[in-house]
Amino acid sequence: MSDSSVVTPPTLTSADPCPCCSGKTYAECCEPLLKGLRPAATAEEMMRSRYTAHVVHDFPYLHRTYAETAGTPYTEEEYGNHIKWTKLEVHSHEPDVRPGISHVDFSAHFEERGQTGVMHEKSEFKLTDGHWIFTRPLREGPAPVVNTQKVGRNDPCPCGSGKKYKKCCGK
Predict the structure, then answer these.
(1) Using CA of residue 126, residue 22, residue 140, residue 94, what is the dihedral sign?
(2) pLDDT 10s digits, 152-166
(3) 42 with 49: CB under 8 angstroms?
(4) H or E segment at 116?
(5) Residue span of the signal peptide, if any (predicted)?
(6) Which residue in 17, 23, 70, 155 has a CA-CA distance of 20 to 30 Å to 88?
(7) CA nearest to 47, candidates 110, 15, 90
(8) Coil, helix or strand for 10?
(9) What angle do CA 19, 22, 28 make, to 5 degrees?
């Protein structure tokens, strides 16, 4: 029995634009990583290649580039066959936040069963034996907004209560 909501991955040629939206061709960007011809040079490059692996349904690549599953035998699993990944935006790459640890903040746009959505995540990557590997998501969703405006005692409370700050959250 076939499921009509299963997404058929695109067939890419080396000359096609890379699905990771880097502006490079697939051959210049993620194809050599997915084929095992070279390791990712940076955590951002590893994250882009993992996004591309989702696009083309290269689930064994996703398995071996994730810390929890790398080094264990790959078995056929469902990794989101119902999702069509449509666009990647990299917001920031923080190299070497600690030795051998980098962070990448990104948004991955998708369509699933007729609905569009965006997955915003900040992820951690670790450099192990010269290879970057995805270790864990640090945050799902956009970064929290930090109020940098100083609130005075007699100013309206920023919580929206209508009270003065000193009589509300400033207690």
Answers:
(1) positive
(2) 778 887 776 778 778
(3) no
(4) strand 115-128
(5) none
(6) 70
(7) 90
(8) coil
(9) 85
